[in-house]
Write a structure and sequence with these properties.
Blueprint: H1 2-29, E1 32-37, H2 44-57, E2 63-68, H3 73-82, E3 87-91, H4 92-100, E4 112-127, E5 142-144, H5 151-162, E6 170-172, H6 176-184, E7 190-193, H7 198-206, E8 210-211, H8 216-225, E9 229-234, E10 241-253, H9 258-270, H10 285-288, H11 300-309, H12 316-339, H13 345-350, H14 354-369, H15 371-400, H16 412-425, H17 436-473, E11 484-487, H18 493-500, E12 511-515, H19 522-525, E13 533-537, H20 543-548, E14 556-559, H21 568-588, E15 599-603, H22 610-615, E16 620-622, H23 624-637, H24 641-649, E17 656-661, H25 673-681, E18 686-691, H26 698-708, E19 714-716, H27 721-725, E20 733-738, H28 741-748
Parallel strand pairs: 1-2, 1-3, 5-6, 5-7, 11-12, 11-14, 12-13, 14-15, 15-16
Antiparallel strand pairs: 3-10, 4-7, 4-8, 4-10, 9-10, 17-20, 18-19, 18-20
Helix pairs in contact: 9-11, 12-14, 15-16, 15-17, 16-17
């Protein structure tokens, strides 16, 4: 059985080899004869075809052109579609009608491909009335528009529709030559023609006939919808004349060999000026050979040659963009399928690795979180998609009805802007589609515009309500800077906030409470309704919660003792370690915004734990129990001390504690305690102490102590010589009593 299969395979291979050799020999040794459809032997196309045949008669391309007389462009395209001919010279407008299924064709011929453009064939408007200078003056006149169904008839209808004249004049439908004769004889007022005979040209030269120009703006407007039209300028009649024209094209079927078409195109392009054109033509070959091509595509063989010689830009970039767009579309659909697949069935069916899919799904979730952006993107993409559809539908509708599309005569940007304005306000700017489908699509724009606006309002309202609820429950990230973070919660927090934000304080700082109290909405429960206070539910022992509290932008962190805990100081020290360590990491990464390390204040219950707190790099320690005991003792031993403390610690119209930080270039730098005492007292400010290197680390403070031979870092009523002679440095802090914060600012300024 195996031998039989091998034998049959050998026979098949041998047969294929012989066939390929035979075909190759035929292609190399025999000329390829291509039949070209032209027109009648008296017509211009036949002479042009003969000059092309002569060009290939002795060529090295092994291509021979056989010229066939036909009934013209329509006949050529019909014969081309049935395979009776291989190539054809046709009028540009007729090729356009064939591709779009317009009369005289009853179906769309989509396999037509362009090879090269030839000479222009102008359409003239002639009249016997010297007072007619513009097209609009043909209103209510008798005008020959060409035989019904002819190419001239359709072209004339398009031209007249562009200036709203088609229905307001009396039409005659005779041959172009007969129409011009009728004008010359005074039987009608004007005629459109694409064939001026010598006697007609003589009549124009003698002044018996007059050419009516077609404005450049009108030609440009028409050609935006009908690309086969172009401007035509001539001085053949001893005066410059502007009119509209169509070109003659050389076309083929799509299935003709790319190599054959490549060689045809190359030969014709290189010898373009040797062809027998019946009218003068532009010698700018590079631009002429592809201008005004009405067909949607050139033949691939012609495209390859034009891209090679630089006449046509490569379409590779457009193909790449199209490929990328398709891949992105598939990716988005896949992401949507995965996202809405709760049981991972899509992932299982596609056999995809979850490690690859999960990042895509997270990306999708990230985009979904930006709801406002998604609504705007939906609106923009909808507007863009609809205007592209409307432009295309209106273009096709205009072609089917022989009119000019207003959307073709505006740039895509202008149409898109119109779509946004119409979607938002309903203003039409004298622009509205004509086709029923386009009208329906544009109606959707109003719904999308109003719906998008309502969606944004609804999302904003729901987000505001949701944010207020989350903020009250502590589920919202703090978006503030230079604030104070209160880490923890106890019964002293409301009183603490009340004093931090007292009305007598000028330089108030926003406060973020980072805690996990029992109440669901602690600020409302304790009637803390201040704009400068935010609540974030969490713990200072977790970096994520610290980030939500805005630790990267905070200035001070206060660690509140958890009095309900069995070991409150252990929790406090752990929070200090986390805060200090995380802030140092942020500072190293440049995420602290140029701030120094955060200033930490901790509430320690037991004095025995002070050293451990300092080892954790806390900047300041408060022990309320220790302070309370000292106040009681001092009140007993020295009656009246408690009254002094209550007076100074209560915000009122008298004295309050304030601090004066010594910064770079401060005028107070280098002053001793006594000098500062006298200097500040002149302004009714009482200096109480100097805090050495208040914002420095514990190690740095110790180094300063050793450098100046100090026994303490807080100099209150200095009595040792070293303390008396100490001069304040940068980063020191003065603790003073003053009546009001503005007093201190006034002095410093």
């Amino acid at each position: 059985m195996g031998r039989i299969k091998g034998f049959i395979g050998s026979i098949l291979l041998g047969y294929l080899f012989l066939v390929s050799c035979s075909n190759k020999a035929e292609s190399v040794n025999q000329d390829r004869v291509l039949k070209v459809g032209t027109a009648s032997q008296e017509g211009y196309y036949y002479g042009l075809g003969e000059s092309m045949a002569d060009l290939f008669a002795d060529s090295e391309e092994k291509i021979k052109l056989e010229i066939a007389a036909t009934n013209g462009s329509v006949d050529n395209i019909e014969k081309l579609s049935t395979g009776e001919i291989d190539l054809a010279i046709v009028q540009n407008d007729i090729a356009f009608f064939a591709e779009n299924g317009l009369a005289p064709f009853n179906k769309k011929l989509k396999d037509l491909r362009g090879i090269i453009s030839f000479y222009s064939e102008p359409i003239y408007v002639v009249t016997n009335d010297p007072s007619i200078d513009y097209l609009y003056q043909l209103r209510d006149r008798r005008v020959n528009t060409g035989p019904i169904g002819s190419g001239l008839f359709i072209d004339t209808r398009i031209i007249l529709n562009s200036v709203d004249l088609w229905t307001v004049l009396t039409q005659e439908n005779v041959l172009p030559v007969d129409g011009v004769d009728a004008v010359l004889n005074g039987e009608i007022d004007a005629a459109f023609t694409n064939a001026l005979l010598d006697r007609h040209k003589e009549a124009i030269a003698e002044g018996n006939l007059k050419l009516v120009p077609i404005r450049s703006s009108t030609i440009s407007m028409i050609s935006n919808t009908y690309p086969y039209f172009e401007r035509y300028d001539t001085n053949e009649f001893e005066f410059n004349q502007t009119t509209i024209s169509v070109r003659a094209l050389f076309v083929a079927r799509e299935d003709l060999s790319d190599q054959v078409v490549y060689e045809l195109t190359k030969k014709l392009h290189e010898n373009y000026l040797e062809l027998a054109f019946p009218v003068p033509h532009n010698t700018d070959v590079a631009n002429q050979v592809i201008s005004s091509m009405s067909l949607q595509s050139f033949h691939d063989g012609a495209t390859s040659y034009y891209e090679q010689v630089g006449v046509m830009q490569s379409q590779n970039l457009l193909r790449l963009i199209g490929t990328i767009s398709f891949v992105l579309l598939i990716t988005i659909l896949l992401i949507l399928a995965i996202h809405f697949s709760s049981d991972n069935s899509v992932k299982k069916i596609l056999g995809l690795n979850l490690e690859i899919i999960n990042p895509i799904q997270r990306s999708y979730e990230f985009i979904v979180r930006h709801r406002y952006l998604m609504v705007l993107l939906f609106m923009v993409s909808s507007y863009t998609s609809i205007i592209m559809l409307v432009q295309n539908i209106e273009h096709n509708w205009a072609i089917q009805n022989n009119v000019v599309s207003d959307f073709d005569n505006r740039s895509f940007g202008s149409n898109l802007l119109w779509m946004f304005v119409f979607g938002g306000s309903g203003y039409i700017d004298n622009l509205f589609p004509n086709s029923p489908i386009s009208k329906f699509l544009v109606a959707l724009i109003r719904l999308i515009g109003i719906g998008g606006f309502l969606a944004i309002v609804g999302l904003f309202t729901s987000d505001q309500i949701r944010n207020r609820i989350l903020k009250a429950k502590g589920g919202k990230r703090a978006m503030i800077k230079d604030h104070i973070i209160l880490c923890g919660w106890n019964e002293n927090i409301p009183f603490l906030i009340q004093n931090l934000l007292h009305e007598n304080k000028i330089n108030k700082k926003a406060i973020v409470i980072l805690a996990d109290p029992k109440e669901e909405k602690p600020l409302e429960y304790h009637n803390i309704n201040v704009d400068m206070v935010s609540f974030v539910r969490g713990s200072a022992t977790k970096k994520f919660d610290l980030e939500r509290a805005g630790i990267q932008h905070a200035e001070i962190a206060v660690i509140i003792a958890d009095t309900d805990s069995e070991e409150p100081d252990a929790k406090t020290i752990l929070k200090i370690l986390t805060v200090e360590k995380y802030c140092r990491e942020l500072e190293q990464e440049g995420k602290r915004g140029g701030r120094e390390n955060i200033y930490t204040i901790a509430e320690i219950v037991e004095t025995d734990n002070f050293e451990s707190a300092y080892d954790a790099d806390v900047d300041e320690i408060i022990s309320l129990g220790h302070i309370k005991s000292k106040i009681i003792v001092q009140s007993i031993v020295n009656p009246g001390v408690s009254n002094f403390i209550n007076e100074t610690l209560t915000y009122n119209e008298f004295n309050e504690f304030y601090t004066i930080p010594i910064k770079d270039k401060s005028p107070l730098i280098g002053s001793t305690f006594d000098e500062l005492l006298i200097m500040l007292r002149k302004h009714k400010i009482l200096l109480l102490s100097i805090s050495i290197g208040n914002h420095k680390s514990r190690k740095e403070k110790t180094e300063i102590q050793h450098a100046f031979n100090l026994t303490r870092t807080v100099l209150t009523n200095p009595f040792r010589e070293e303390e008396v002679n100490y001069r304040v440095q940068i980063d020191d802090v003065l603790v003073v009593l003053a009546d009001y914060e503005k007093t201190i600012e006034k002095v410093l300024n």
